[in-house]
């Protein structure tokens, strides 16, 4: 019988702990598929964040390092600088990357650190139970914005790709989503491009993936996808914000 | 061996490079900046990596990344910067990743001052970050010892898979003394059983991690680590004894302060006062046995520190409070003078 | 035998450099020694000093509080430190810039117009080295040969042309 679908080799054969409807699983799979297709699992070191995807070290089959909250880009810098021939990626959520780790994130862009950053934006802190993230939308109810995020009190959501695109060391800043099959395909292409950039030593590639958190949003998986489309994409437009390989490809 | 004249900060850097340190990640802070500057000049030529990080926090996490792949890595700072690094140091300890951290201490708390101090003793020996853990902490008292201890620190960190610290101070960091670099074996322990540097499809994947959600698993991890700490306590505690055989008063002091104390002891001896010194060379593990031996015939003990009194706790514990332990210290960056220490020794009487 | 030396002046007068030469002299003569600068925001233009200990024994405290030899290159330094010099000690002063009148009779004070000598001999910034020349002549702490070797060691190769000037400055000091 022909095999039409199987687990990528770069993913371990273990059950994931993610909630039903959570899109982490999709993104894990896409990263693993790219690693498989490029044949680089043995040469790859991944760096996990603190947050829901902290256990990603148990899911990816390449060597993995668990970083302190927000510090994954610094840890990845240490790995890459001492092992320039290895592929290094971080996998980070919005609290990790855009709040406590903002400095680390900005500076890997400024330095043009030759790594890949996979950034999961689901507008909320998942693991700690649904608090306001730096990407939480105005009006969004969370445990720490019980009356909805008020910009007067809690500031405004950060658009990370737009910010990272301003840094001269950034090779790729692209925002994608995993709400539909075409978007998932687009996401995989972006991740592939990010790893190819690393292979060609082009600098920092960040792929921001708009994702869902049905549990902490209090929505069914289907409604969560709908929220992503109706509320997140208008504030966080999909697209390529910087791509040094594309002629006039910058948005 | 050829003697060179070097600043303590520069000697630390050169010794680290010779000890096979391949990565240095730093951030400017007085009074340790010469160390980073020296690394910037030398490291790339020596085939290693120098990088000025965006913060102390990033620097120590870069060390975590590099050291997790099995290479020798180091960061350095001074007191306020070490506080920032404490998070990363706890992760290094919790992930069993060896690395070397240098603290060229200055006055605190807060921004404090920039003059030499020993106010970070408690931090270094008891609480450098959250959780049950220790670092091996070396306390050099000369530029030569800074060199020797950096080499030892790298070796012992690797041997026991723990982070190690050099607890120096602004005086040692800034001063120049003659120094000779010993032949250092290029041989380093094999880290292939745990290093996360790409499995090359030839082994299971390695995970460098400090997270253990199951309490029993975490407890077991910590207990295993404490078994290593017990070996470190047994094998690595070290102290210098100076004129303690017949001493009625034994002064305990470490680092730069011990030099001031030595001057005072020489003056006191010239006056016929039987006084000696026990100088811990490792402050964790604390040389309890050596202190007990040094104080065996003494009736009184004096602890001299550049702080309000921190090591004195360990001295009292080592002696089970069986002898009176007095204290003399200056703090905030004020260096005690030999005359002040001599006055204190004289005030304690002491059999001639 | 230990010689404790304190050099003090304004930042930019070559206080630390003069101390470095003395330290290297100690190294050349196989002595124990230490060199300790004041450090911090006073690096540029403020007062600056440097402790040098030269000894046959390992050096204890490297901080010189009661010098055997004081080199004072500005008035505040002279006023501040002249009282700390050990009885029998020696003081060397740039008398172009410093009024070295003093009540103490238990120390020897040498006033050398080193800034003026440096200007007259086109040795810009050489006042510190001229004072060093005077020190080795009056105290015999090091030989001229040792000091020349030390200078060759301290002056970076990129500035090797300055070695001859430094030699000239020492001899000026010795003959002053």
Number of helices of chain C: 6
* CATH fold-level assignment of chain A: Rossmann fold
- Show unreliable segments of chain C: none
The sequence of SSEs of chain C as H and E is EHEEEHEEHHHH
Say what oligomer this is: heterotrimer
Q: Name the chain pair with the biggest interface and residue counts per chain.
A: A-B, 36 and 40 residues
Total helical segments of chain A = 10
CA-atom Rg of chain A in angstroms: 17 Å
Brief digest:
Chain A is of the alpha/beta class and 251 residues long. Chain A has helices at 24-38, 56-59, 72-82, 94-100, 102-111, 151-154, 160-164, 181-199, 214-217, 221-235, and strands spanning 44-48, 63-66, 87-93, 116-121, 170-177, 204-210, 239-243. In chain A, helix 8 (181-199) links the parallel strand 5 and strand 6.
Description:
The complex is a heterotrimer of chains A (251), B (352) and C (176). Chain A is globular. Chain A is built from ten helices and seven strands. In chain A, strands 2-1-3-4-6-5-7 form a seven-stranded mixed sheet, with helices on both faces. Chain A has helices at 24-38, 56-59, 72-82, 94-100, 102-111, 151-154, 160-164, 181-199, 214-217, 221-235; strands spanning 44-48, 63-66, 87-93, 116-121, 170-177, 204-210, 239-243. By secondary structure, chain B is α/β, with parallel strands linked by helices. Helices cover 40% and strands 19% of the residues of chain B. Chain C has 176 residues and is α/β, with parallel strands linked by helices. Chain C is built from six helices and six strands. In chain C, α3 (114-120) crosses α4 and α5 (144-154) runs antiparallel to α6. The radius of gyration of chain C is 15 Å and the shape is globular. At the A-B interface, β1, β2, α3 and α5 of A face α3, α4 and β9 of B.
């Amino acid at each position: 019988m022909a095999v039409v679908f199987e687990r990528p080799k770069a993913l371990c054969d273990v059950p994931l702990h993610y909630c039903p409807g959570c899109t982490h699983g999709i993104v894990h799979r896409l990263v693993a598929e790219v690693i498989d297709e490029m044949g680089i699992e043995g040469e790859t070191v991944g760096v996990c964040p603190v947050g829901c995807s902290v256990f990603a070290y148990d899911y990816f089959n390449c060597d993995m390092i668990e970083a302190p909250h927000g510090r994954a880009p610094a840890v990845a810098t240490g790995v890459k600088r001492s092992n320039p021939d290895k592929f290094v990626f971080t996998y980070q959520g919005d609290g990790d990357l855009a709040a406590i780790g903002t400095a680390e994130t900005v500076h890997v862009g400024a330095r043009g650190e030759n790594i890949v950053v996979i950034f999961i934006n689901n507008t909320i802190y998942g693991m700690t139970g649904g608090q306001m993230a730096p990407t939480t939308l105005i009006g969004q109810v969370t445990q720490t914005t019980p009356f909805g995020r008020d910009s007067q009190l809690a500031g405004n959501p950060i658009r990370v790709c737009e910010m990272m695109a301003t840094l001269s060391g950034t090779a790729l800043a692209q925002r994608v989503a995993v709400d539909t099959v075409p978007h998932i395909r687009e996401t995989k292409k972006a991740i592939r491009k990010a790893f190819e950039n690393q292979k060609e030593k082009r600098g920092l590639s960040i792929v921001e993936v708009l994702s869902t958190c049905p549990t902490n949003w209090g929505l069914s998986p289907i409604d969560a996808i709908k929220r992503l489309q109706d509320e997140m994409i208008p504030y966080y437009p999909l697209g390529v914000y910087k791509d040094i390989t594309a002629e006039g490809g910058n948005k | 061996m050829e003697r060179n004249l070097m600043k303590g900060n520069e000697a630390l850097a050169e010794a680290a490079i010779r000890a096979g340190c391949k990565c240095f990640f730093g951030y400017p802070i007085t009074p340790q900046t010469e160390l980073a500057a020296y690394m910037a000049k030398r490291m790339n030529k020596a085939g290693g990596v120098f990088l000025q990080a965006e913060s102390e926090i990033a620097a120590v996490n870069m060390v975590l990344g590099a050291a997790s792949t099995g290479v020798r890595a180091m960061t350095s700072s001074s007191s306020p910067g070490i506080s920032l690094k404490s998070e990363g140091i706890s992760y290094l300890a919790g992930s069993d990743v060896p690395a070397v951290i240098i603290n060229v201490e200055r006055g605190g708390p807060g921004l404090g001052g920039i003059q030499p101090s020993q106010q970070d003793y408690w931090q270094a020996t008891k609480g450098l970050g959250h959780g049950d853990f220790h670092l091996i902490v070396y306390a050099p008292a000369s530029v030569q010892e800074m060199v020797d201890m950096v080499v030892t620190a790298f070796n012992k960190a690797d041997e026991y898979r723990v982070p190690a610290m050099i607890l120096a101070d602004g005086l040692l960091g800034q001063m120049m003394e003659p120094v000779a670099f010993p032949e250092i074996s290029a041989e380093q322990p094999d880290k292939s059983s745990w290093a996360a540097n790409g499995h090359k499809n030839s082994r299971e994947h390695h995970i460098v991690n400090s997270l253990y959600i199951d309490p029993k698993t975490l407890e077991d991890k910590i207990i295993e680590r404490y078994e290593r700490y017990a070996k470190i306590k047994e094998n690595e505690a070290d102290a210098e004894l100076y004129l303690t055989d017949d001493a009625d008063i034994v002064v305990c002091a470490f680092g730069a302060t011990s030099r001031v104390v030595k001057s005072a002891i020489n003056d006191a001896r010239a006056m016929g006062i039987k006084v000696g010194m026990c100088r811990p060379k490792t402050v964790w593990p604390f040389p309890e046995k050596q202190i007990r031996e040094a104080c065996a015939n003494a009736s009184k003990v004096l602890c001299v520190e550049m702080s309000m009194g921190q090591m004195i706790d360990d001295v009292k514990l080592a002696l089970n409070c069986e002898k009176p332990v007095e204290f003399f210290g200056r703090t905030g960056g004020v260096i005690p003078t030999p005359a002040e220490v001599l006055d204190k020794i004289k005030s304690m009487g002491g059999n001639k | 035998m230990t010689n404790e030396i304190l050099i003090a002046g304004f930042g930019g007068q070559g206080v630390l450099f003069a101390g470095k030469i003395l330290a290297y002299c100690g190294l050349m003569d196989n002595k124990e020694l230490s060199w300790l600068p004041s450090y911090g925001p006073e690096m540029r233009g403020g007062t600056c000093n440097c402790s040098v200990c030269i000894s046959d024994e390992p050096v204890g405290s490297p901080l010189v509080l009661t010098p055997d030899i004081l080199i004072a290159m500005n008035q505040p330094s002279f006023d501040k430190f002249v009282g700390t010099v050990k009885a029998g000690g020696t003081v060397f002063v740039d008398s172009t810039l410093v009024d070295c009148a003093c009540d103490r009779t238990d120390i020897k004070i040498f006033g050398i117009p080193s800034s003026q000598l440096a200007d007259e001999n086109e040795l810009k910034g050489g006042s510190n080295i001229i004072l060093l020349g005077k020190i080795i002549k009056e105290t015999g702490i090091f030989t001229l040969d040792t000091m020349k070797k030390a200078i060759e060691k301290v002056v970076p190769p990129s500035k090797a042309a300055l070695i001859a000037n430094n030699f000239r400055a020492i001899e000026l000091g010795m003959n002053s």
